[in-house]
Every structure is written in structure tokens, then in C-alpha cells.
Amino acid sequence: MGDSLVQRLELEGARVTWLRHVGRAVGALRTPPDPIDAVICDIRLPDGTGEELFTRLNETTAPPPFLFVTGHGEIDQAVRLMQAGAVDYISKPFDIEKLLERLVKLLAEKPHSEYTPFLGISVAARQAEHMIAKAGKLSRPVLVLGGPGTGKALAARRIHDLSDRAAHRFSSINFAREPETFASIDRIGALLDGVGQGTLYIHTIGRLPDEVQEMLLARLEKGFDGRVIASCGVGPEELLAEGSGFPELLYRLDMLKIPIPPFSERPEDAVWLMYRKFAGLNARRKRPLEGISTLAEEIVRTHDWPGGGRELRARLSRAVKTSPGPMLQPSDLFPERVAKGDRLRPLAEIRDRAERQHIIEVLELCGGHAGKAAQVLKISRTTLWDKMQKLGIRKA
């Protein structure tokens, strides 16, 4: 059925990619080279189910519209998938003209403009993005709270772009990186005057010298034309307890707080960011990787990421450049763990490493013939293919 369906869709002028296995489909749909308008997916696949594919995609991205093909006895599953966000389903046997009608309707109903998350797909990230959108409609000061690399500067810029000040200047102060900017009161005054009716973003406000904080407070009280957005790793109460903040200024800024939790509290966003950045980095390789292994995805999900998004982007950039392939592996992202031996690894990782090495050795002994290797391993070819996809093994 697959061959005839592909031929008919191509005759209708569609560009079609046929993905026969869940493992390959996950990577291809998460990081497609070109936008995908729709997915026609059978409930039953050689190495899993369409429901498994749809669920895995929903964990890290907003998948394209899905039209599921179901057999007898699978209607309840299709209905459950529609409740989870799938668009439609069609039961076997079906007339191909009917399927084309459903597909045309699905594409016609697809919204032309879909919201794209910028902090992540977790509930916490969506809540923060909702608060950011709300802040864009207001004119009061904003305090963005979060650890290193959580997206505080990105949030500040987003608030500015959504506000009625978007046409004006967006200026930022980062005392840790630019201490010379605060060498004199005159320079500070000139910086504030330059903001005009735009937005002033202050990185890590607790690090500002007291005299600068006092001057900012005086300007705000006298009628500063711009808007102030500040960020901090902890709340005003903690800053004051540390003796790092100027109380009156902090209370003045603490009118609208937007917390952005670390990746350790929203691990799905770490995986989302990895896939979001992977395609662009991978395209720069002479020989692109086939995708990201399940083991690499799991280690990204379980790592605490104390450096947040900056740490993740740096590790991913280095890993994609240096990975021997064909799939990105945990050792590419965390080579120091391999160097140290990292004896305290999860049992599942130890088992997967051993299983991967054994399958590679058997494939080599069988001259790369999957059927013979499956017989030696006493598993079906489908199971072997599934394991090869999961463990990032490519036939020679």
C-alpha cells in the first residue's frame, strides 16, 4: 500500500518522504530540512506504533498535522490520538480518493501562523511566555528571575518587542562584562539619556554598585521616560539578605516578577532546545549525522545543566563538530565522563553500551547482513532494526 500511496501523492504534485520506522521518523520529523505540511501515519509500524511516534514528537516539539491510518479494532486508539492533538484518521480499507479529500481538508484548515515557543514546551516555560506576553502590554518595570542560561535576556528582549516601545531603542547594562561603563556618573547619565522612550535591560541587578543603583532610583522617581527590565538569579528578599541590593530600587522594580525555572525542573525543554539547535549545526558538517541517539537524548534529559542553555549550546556545538557518527552519542556531549571512566553510570546505559558493542561485532562477523545477524542473536529482523536505530548503529 505504501508504494501506491507515495506514487499517487507524487502524481498529485506532492513532495513525499517515506519513513518506514519509528526510529528514523522521530529524527526526521523533529529536525526536517524543509517544513512538513502533513504526516500520513499507519497505527502499526515495523518497530513500534504510530501512537509511540506521535507521543515522542509531542514531548519535544509541536508536530505537523497527523492523519492516522487505522485497521479494524484500532478505532479507539485513533480517537485517543485525536484527543491528544492528532487531526484526523481513516480506517482500512479505504478509497485513495477519500484519503486525498481528507488530506486536502487537513491542509486547508492548517493555520497559516502558528505560535512558536522560544523558552520551551514545558508547562513552566509556557507560563513564563504567557507572563512575558502580558508584560509586553504593560508599561511597569519588570523583574525577570532565573539562573545562568535560562533565557532572561531573551525574555527582556521579547517584552520590549511586544510592547508599544518596540520602535524605540533597546539598551542593556551588564556590569560584570562592562565595568568601565560605570567609571563615572556622567557616563551612566549619558547611557540613561540614550534610552529615550525605549527599554533599559539591566543584567543581574544585584551586581550594580550601590551608587549606580541609587542613581537609577533617583531617575525613576523623577520620571524616567524609558522602561526598566532587570534580571536577577534570586528574588529581592534574598538579595537584601545577602546585602547585595539597594532596597528602594528593588522594591520599585518588584512590580511584576517573571520566574524562569532551570532545566533541572523542566528537562523536556533541554531536549527541545537540543533538537531546535541540532539541525543548523548538523547542516555545517561535510557528512551530516543521521540524528540523535536515544541514549544522548536521555543524558540531556537527566543532566542538571547548571550553565543552562549556554552550557547546552556549547556542548552540542562541540559534539556535532567532533562526533564520529553516524548518530550523536552521550560520549560526544560529555567526553569528560569517558575520560574519567565515569563508573557510576545508570544500569540502563551500561546495558545499552554492552548491547551496542555486541551487535556491532555480530554484524561485522556476518558481513553486515542483518538477516544473518538476527539469526545469530536469536531475535527478529524487526527487533534488530529497532535496536540499531535506538543505539545509533549503521550497517557497513
Give the topology, please.
Elements: H1 2-11, H2 22-30, E1 39-42, E2 44-45, E3 48-49, H3 50-60, E4 66-70, H4 75-83, E5 88-91, H5 96-109, H6 123-136, E6 142-145, H7 152-162, E7 170-173, H8 185-195, E8 199-202, H9 210-222, E9 227-232, H10 236-242, H11 247-253, E10 257-259, H12 267-283, E11 291-292, H13 294-302, H14 308-322, E12 327-328, H15 330-333, H16 335-340, H17 347-365, H18 370-377, H19 381-391
Parallel strand pairs: 1-4, 4-5, 6-9, 6-10, 7-8, 8-9, 11-12
Antiparallel strand pairs: 2-3
Describe the structure.
By secondary structure, the chain is of the alpha/beta class. It has 3 domains: 2-109, Rossmann fold; 123-261, 3-Layer(aba) Sandwich (Rossmann fold), CATH 3.40.50.300; 265-391, Orthogonal Bundle (Helicase, Ruva Protein, domain 3). The protein is built from 19 helices and 12 strands. It has helices at 2-11, 22-30, 50-60, 75-83, 96-109, 123-136, 152-162, 185-195, 210-222, 236-242, 247-253, 267-283, 294-302, 308-322, 330-333, 335-340, 347-365, 370-377, 381-391, and strands at 39-42, 44-45, 48-49, 66-70, 88-91, 142-145, 170-173, 199-202, 227-232, 257-259, 291-292, 327-328. It has a 5-stranded parallel β-sheet with strand order 7-8-9-6-10, with helices on both faces. It has a 3-stranded parallel β-sheet with strand order 1-4-5, sandwiched between helices. The chain has a two-stranded antiparallel ribbon with strand order 2-3. A hairpin with a 2-residue loop joins strand 2 (44-45) and strand 3 (48-49). Helix 2 (22-30) runs parallel beside helix 3, helix 12 packs parallel to helix 14 and helix 18 (370-377) packs across helix 19 (381-391). The two termini are 29 Å apart. The mean pLDDT is 82.
